[in-house]
Amino acid sequence: MSIIMKPGASEYQIQQVVKKMKSYGVDVHISKGKYQTFLGAIGKESKIDFDTVAAMEGVERPNPIQMDVKYPLSSRAFNPDDKTVIIGGEGTKKVEIGAERPVYIAGPCAVESKYQMRKVAEYIAEIREKDSYAQYMLRGGAWKPRTNPHTFSGLEEKGIKILKEVRDEFEIPVVTEGMREAHMPIIAEHLDAIQIGARHMQAFELIKSAGKTGIPIIFKKGTDHEIEEYLQANDHIIVAGNGKGSNIVLCPRGSYTKDKKYIRNRPDLEAIPVLKNESYFPVIFDPSHSIGKREHVGKVSAAAMAMGSYGLLIEVHPNPKKAKTDPQQQVTLQEFSEIAKFCNEVHALSRKYENQ
Ligand code: PEP
Ligand code: MN
Q1: 289 CA distance to ligand 1 middle (Å)
Q2: Are 162 and 150 in contact (CB under 8 A)?
Q3: pLDDT (tens digit, 9 = 90+) per residue, 176-200?
Q4: Ligand 1: distance of its center to the CA of 335 in Å?
Q5: Beta bridge partner(s), residue 27
């Protein structure tokens, strides 16, 4: 539930309403849109006397849309304006996710060596210089969640050191996955964004610890979870983090499929427009983990851009067949550059369609 203030309501009027709502024992999140302020009640809203609040000065009306929304802080009803998430600390060429230009977050599944990461970063930095349409970021896993415990699980802190060196050399923002609470401050100190993996979507203490760092988060959707559960989990991050100032990028990455024989997951492309409608956080898509087959990654990438994605998180390896993790789905550097070029065109068409 939220209260919509009249356009031009004064700060004093807003504070009076907040005070009143708090007196009923709920917490209040203030959300200032371009024209109007929304006051979201967090807690047992049944205790609120809405007639009293509705009669207060500066109040336009209670907002009934949110009566049954389980994720008030992620909901577009709470914040009508699209959010743009800026990623990139000092010394990097920042990217803006959710704005005009698409963003490609490319790099290997796992950090395997400095040589490997330099090769990828150098190539991406080169494309970046030639491409005035899109923006580029680097990815690479230092800690890897592995279904099979007997396989390579990342270089860990050594991987972070490599990512940091490559980041500084090529001035490129870097994201890596945090798998334990202790990883979060390490990533926040050295890199630019934390990835929360699909397996951890509902690991609430873990995702809250990421929120507490205050740095941007790329939040993957679980393979077996509903959009409603996903956005509720997102509210956990917001409560633990910066409230409305939280910088979260939503990233679907495929749903469970019975067709495992042919594909890794079923690309849940419909989640892109649904999440954009439901929430104000920017949405990107991961074609690599969703389809899981190199030969289909380009097609799924284009489809995601056609569905309105603001960007892609895509696995790229200098020699995919030799990759220590996910060799079947990583594309080559050359393939990546072709995908980015084609996706720029699809993105332009999709924007044109959306703005019609
Ligand atoms: C990854 O991006 O390398 C990864 C492990 O992702 P997910 O959590 O989507 O499986
Ligand atoms: Mn992977």
Answers
A1: 7
A2: no
A3: 999 999 999 999 999 999 999 999 9
A4: 20
A5: 42
